[in-house]
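Sequence decides. Consider this:

===
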Amino acid sequence: MNSTAILLVEDNPQDEMLILRALKKAHVANRVDVARDGQQAIDYLFNQGEFHTPTGRALPTVILLDISLPRLSGLEVLERIRADPRTKLTPVVILTSSDEEQDRLSSYESGANSFVRKPLDFSEFAETVARLGIYWVAINQIPVTACQAH
């Protein structure tokens, strides 16, 4: 597995902890950077605000994005990602508790690569996250331009 980061956009501390644990248990070696609201995700992706670094950073291998977020919703973040040429090809997985058909439809219409409902059962949740991590960082192949530094 490569060393490019995974961006986890999650406002629930318990879900964040479970996701981080599940990725570690699945031996996903990628660093996981966390944004806890939609604005932080935008700042991270576009190298601004509290996430600004003078040298920039490579885009994440994959973004695990919750729908229900403070400041900017996950769908607003997704729309901004797809609207910018620097990030439009970055894989985005909606990882949410929502089981609403409208959320699923809106996610795909906005350009999500995948929509995954967070299982309520802890072991199922951990297994789902582990499979996501392995697929998106070890199996899926993205174009080189989707992970260049910005």
